[in-house]
Sequence to fold (214 residues):
Amino acid sequence: MRNKILFIVNPKSGTLKKTNWIAMATKMLAQEFDLEFQYTTYRGHAHELAKNAVSEGVPIVVAVGGDGTVNEIAGALVHTETALAILPLGSGNGLARDLGISTLLPFNAIETIKRGKTLKIDYGTANGVPFFCTCGIGFDAHISQLFATNKKRGFINYIYLSIREYFRYRPLKCKLEYNGTTLTKQAFIINCANIQQLGNQAFIAPKADFTDGL
Fold:
């Protein structure tokens, strides 16, 4: 019996329409695996599809999209026997970049899936929800929210929103408690980083290591 690979696809991802990745994946993987493609239609749908895959015993789920899609799917796979793979076709692709998965050539990302090498990585939780890339409040969270609800996708639009909002955004008054210390500050950004970058090589924590157990 052949193993199955489920591709969960976010059709609104930034570069999805610019590649022939389905034909490429079929050509490279169909001789060894049974392939299935499912498309998301609303926020949270990727998480639901991934949970269903776990219950059905699917061994590999591929997140086709950006970091938002990856985060939804990965959250459903924590502490299961189902492995996460990434075909990075989003705007930032931070986790894929930190993992060394090619964001330029789908061929290389699919080849990574075909090799089947797995790696255990850390994750954090915020309000009970797992995160695998970064988690924060302030300007970057504000931009992420705007970008998620914006009809225009792609890196250029992300930069446009960032520049426009930079001159409008006002810092937050924040109270932080850690290691028995309380700190009150006006903060433009507060971020907890599991990986080194926000995406597109925007490094905010160059010493972050997603395998260090911290």
In short: The two ends are 39 Å apart (CA to CA). The helical segments are 21-29, 45-55, 67-77, 94-99, 106-115, 139-149, 155-166. The chain has seven helices and ten strands. The domain at 4-126 is CATH 3.40.50.10330 (Rossmann fold).
